[in-house]
Design brief:
The protein is an alpha/beta fold and 357 residues long. The protein has 2 domains: 222 residues, 3-Layer(aba) Sandwich (Aspartate Aminotransferase, domain 2), CATH 3.40.640.10; 94 residues, Alpha-Beta Complex (Aspartate Aminotransferase, domain 1). Strand 6, helix 8 and strand 7 form a beta-alpha-beta unit. Helix 5 packs parallel to helix 6 and helix 11 runs parallel beside helix 13. The longest helix is centred in the C-terminal third of the chain and has 26 residues. The termini are far apart. The mean pLDDT is 95.
Length: 357
């Protein structure tokens, strides 16, 4: 597929748009800075961060580090305020209100459909199929995706934990050539690194990946994610992103979190969470009131209870917060349980032994 064909998928007014050029985008932060209407003095408690100055819109050091981590090139990256901003940018750039359609595969992350509806795009559903021990994509996925400007997939999927093969994503991207993007949300890929799809980008310019530092990297409070795509797509997204999306403290903390020693600690935590997920799944499988535990490949479990809303309410009364998924298609009485520390998981297991007995 010619990358120019991908650009033609964007809204014509976005293609014609001349992006806003911020002071920091036009000139670096060297020399005497009298070009951005900033205060010349840092605030109290600045700690050397120079918070009186606007940050780099796309910090080169952060992009270089993420490119190294994700096995791609800096020009294939746009750093965003979490994956939520990446989703919103993609929908706003590529979907015309009242004309274009967006495919989602529920049960899934709700922001795909919400962003589409805010933009006025029709939402097409291709619901996942419960195959017993896991959820799978429906056989009519390609048919449902036809004429959709964006098809959103998630692997491992939230809240079901199932993975999507690179072969499946590549085949859908091929089928969507010239008509739409395939966006794969890899928010939990660190828990299943063998499923990463970055190698597909060279062959499929209409494939877009999303990553986040909120999960395995423990930076949910920093709001930092990335879109990985062909530079043509990145250029289009940059035309409408906020002038200064990344706060200076966020970038500083992210660089520390991406240092080699921090990455080694992250990997230890991922290994612990994976082992704990198996332990919690085994314990919940024999708990009274739990009728099903699905296998998954992330830092959570999806379970079905005899009364899901009651389980969530009773756990909250015991000081344990769980997530009711009953409103999702096909997930009546289902609850998503995040894997915590071994001590937190022990408390959960102890609570579940006495619940519904």
């Amino acid at each position: 597929m010619n990358p120019k064909d991908v650009a033609n998928l964007a809204r014509p007014e976005i293609r014609a748009l001349k992006p806003y050029a911020s002071a920091r985008a036009l000139a670096d932060s060297a020399g005497i800075l009298l070009n951005a209407n900033e205060s010349p003095w840092p605030p109290a408690g600045d700690g050397g961060l120079a918070l009186n100055r606007y940050p780099d819109p796309q910090p080169a050091r952060l992009k270089a580090r993420l490119a190294e981590l994700y096995d791609t090139r800096p020009e294939n990256l746009l750093v965003t305020r979490g994956s939520d901003e990446g989703i919103d940018l993609l929908v706003r750039v590529f979907c015309r209100a009242g004309i274009d359609r967006v495919l989602v595969c529920p049960p899934c992350f709700g922001m795909y459909a919400l962003s589409a509806r805010v933009q006025g795009a029709e939402v097409v559903q291709a619901p996942l199929i419960d195959a017993g021990d896991r959820f799978v994509l429906p056989d009519d996925l390609r048919e449902k995706a036809r004429d959709c400007r964006i098809a959103f997939l998630c692997s491992p999927n939230n809240p079901t934990g199932n993975i999507i093969s690179a072969e499946t994503a590549g085949e859908l991207a091929t089928a969507q050539q010239g008509s739409g993007l395939v966006v794969v949300d890899e928010a939990y890929v660190e828990f299943a690194p063998e499923t990463a799809m970055v190698a597909l980008l060279e062959r499929h310019p209409n494939l877009v990946l999303m990553r986040t530092l909120s999960k395995a990297h423990a930076l949910a409070g920093c709001r930092l994610g990335a879109v990985i795509a062909h530079p043509v797509v990145i250029d289009l997204l940059r035309r409408i992103i906020a002038p200064y999306p990344l706060p200076t403290p966020t970038v500083s903390i992210a660089m520390r979190a991406l240092a080699d020693d921090a990455l080694a600690e992250k990997q230890q935590h991922v290994s612990t969470l994976t082992a704990e997920r198996h332990r919690v799944a085994a314990a919940l499988g024999s708990s009274p009131g739990i009728t099903k535990v699905w296998s998954g490949a992330a830092n959570f479990l999806l379970i079905r209870a005899v009364d899901g809303p009651r389980l969530v309410a009773d756990a909250a009364a015991a000081g344990i917060r769980l997530r009711d998924q009953s409103a999702q298609p096909g997930l009546a009485d289902c609850v998503r349980i995040t894997i915590g520390t071994p001590e937190e998981n022990n408390a959960l297991i102890g609570f579940m032994r006495g619940w519904y007995s």
